[in-house]
Automatic annotation (TrEMBL), chain A:
Residues 145-244 form the Fibronectin type-III domain. This is Interleukin-7 receptor subunit alpha. Keywords: Disulfide bond, Glycoprotein, Membrane, Phosphoprotein, Receptor, Signal, Transmembrane, Transmembrane helix, Ubl conjugation. Pfam families: FN3_7 (PF18447). The chain crosses the membrane at residues 9-29, 251-274. Receptor for interleukin-7. Also acts as a receptor for thymic stromal lymphopoietin (TSLP). InterPro entries: FN3_7, FN3_dom, FN3_sf, Hempt_rcpt_S_F1_CS, Ig-like_fold. The IL7 receptor is a heterodimer of IL7R and IL2RG. The TSLP receptor is a heterodimer of CRLF2 and IL7R. Interacts with CD53. GO terms for biological process: B cell homeostasis; B cell proliferation; cell morphogenesis; cellular homeostasis; defense response to Gram-positive bacterium; gene expression; lymph node development; negative regulation of T cell apoptotic process. GO terms for molecular function: interleukin-7 receptor activity. It is found in: Membrane. It is a single-pass type I membrane protein. GO terms for cellular component: cytosol; external side of plasma membrane; nucleoplasm.
TrEMBL record, chain B:
Belongs to the IL-7/IL-9 family. Residues 1-25 form the signal peptide. The gene is IL7. GO terms for molecular function: cytokine activity; growth factor activity; interleukin-7 receptor binding. GO terms for cellular component: extracellular space. This is Interleukin-7. Pfam families: IL7.
Amino acid sequence: MGSHACSPLFLALRMTILGTAFGMVFYLLQVVSGESGYAQNGDFEDAEPDDYSFSCYSQLEVNGSQHLINCAFDDPDVKSNNLEFEICESLTVNSCLNFNKLQERYLLKTEKFLLIGESKVCVKLRGKIVTCKTIKIIEIVKPEAPFNLKVIYRKEANDFVVTFNISQKKYVKKLIHEVAYHQEKNENDWTHVNLSSTKLTLLQKKLQADAMYEIKVRSIPLADYFQGFWSEWSPSFHFKTPESKGEMDPVLLIVSMLSFFCVALMFILACVLWKKRIKPIIWPSLPDHKKTLEQLCKKPKKNLYASFNPESFLDCQIHKVDGIQARDEVEGFLQDTFSPQLEESEKQRPGGSVQGTKHAVITPKPFRGDAPLGCLARNVSACDAPELSFSRSPDCRAGGKNEPPEDQGLLVGPGTTNGTLSPPFPFQSEILTLNPATQGQPLLTSLGSSQEEAYVTMSSFYQNQ
Amino acid sequence: MFHVSLRYIFGIPPLILVLLPVASPDCEIEGKNGEEYRHVLTVSFEILAPIGENDSNCLNNEHNFFKKHSCDDDKEATFLKTAARKLKHFLNTNIHEELKHHLSIVSQGTLKLLNCTRKDKGKKQASLGEAQPTKNLEAKKSLKEQRKQDDMCFLRMLLQQIKTCWNKILRGTKEH
């Protein structure tokens, strides 16, 4: 009985649970179908709310003192049949102003903008405000596009002058312009130049020669008080650059000119310094002793002359002939007397102790011949210089020091055992001794003979080598 | 004694409430950087400059308005507010529409920049000497008599005074 009594209650409970479950399933199905876009009635209640966001821009003084405000929905799919726009506040009138619809855009052209403060632009659906936005007319300014764009080629200056015009306004006076140009074959390779004036100069060298270019310009308010957006691009202007005349780059031209001058300078220097500097370095001449000596001795002694000018003998000791002759007599006498003793003493002491004796005995000899020879020989041409330097210069120097001039010759002569150097001195001393009183030409003749002897000696030396 | 003291105590707050609006400034000048003045109001002043230019008596004829209202120190906002309201009267006169438009910009633009919180219509009328019916009638009579000669002169002087007062405010802002 108990089980029978409970069964209706149990059934009722089961039915309730089943009904609830079916209800939930049906609800879920309805929700899912709604989200999947299977709405049957097409009412707004089932569709997503439209996005009524919009954007506006203003154009000041588009027609005299009239301004324009232009608004449009950001979503172009918005059903705008029953939608309206209005603007309130910051107007010279107290009421709000309604926009006019033109296709998908909403326009209002009026002079009643105060241009100070914020305005409120609202979207209305069937008279009810849907959404509003606070804007400042002065901060959404979109200037009018520049017009009358021209490009003039200046042949003299090798440049292109780009000019264009803009509408003169009382309010938005300061604009920034953007000029864009490109070679027509390069579609997207635009070059942009910003400027505040309506004139631009393009240098010819920055453009490709013999090419078609397209150029256009647009403007934007300089953001001081009026701000906004870029204007539309002006109508494009097409121009062709002239053909290249083979003009070189100035830098390249300067470098090439400098290089040419450097090469020319080096060539000239090479020509000038060839014989003196360059050739001796490249092909050094081997010294030929024979030729040298031949030239030395065959050279005519044009500059050989004898001078008795006392100034020529300033650095030499000059003795009066009378005194020398008197001394010669005395010495001759003494020589006769002491010569045997001298020979003996020389044999016994061939060293430095002989010097003092020499002073006493042989001093007169050089006075007679050697000193004048040295001083005369100084006037001989350069050909004789190497040869004469042995006998001349030391004597002159010795004379300057007040030393007996014959010392050098006598000391070197007898004391020297070198066969190559000894011949000139014996010859010389011999000549001088044999011609004690001779002057000028005879002396030089003897000098020439000594050179010949030197030549013979050197030639033999050369042949031996 | 107790009643007397209570009377004093409870009498002070109402007194403060009455005096407070008078003592506090009712206008706060916006746009002291001068941007709005330079870019908007100046344009209108330039367009309105030819008004009364040919009238030689303008300089000799000083209007009563300027005897009552001047752009003295600490009274600039009050003067501008009064002058801007006065300009509105010229919108009903027979002048060119463009001039009316720019008069409206100067008038409403000035009032917007002053950002006056208190709208004292009665006081405004009194300050202009047009609130009381008798004075209003007198003013109307005098205006009717001198309208042809004085209207443009007064408008010119009014515009000049407004311009001078704005310059004074902006100059003071720069100095500070």
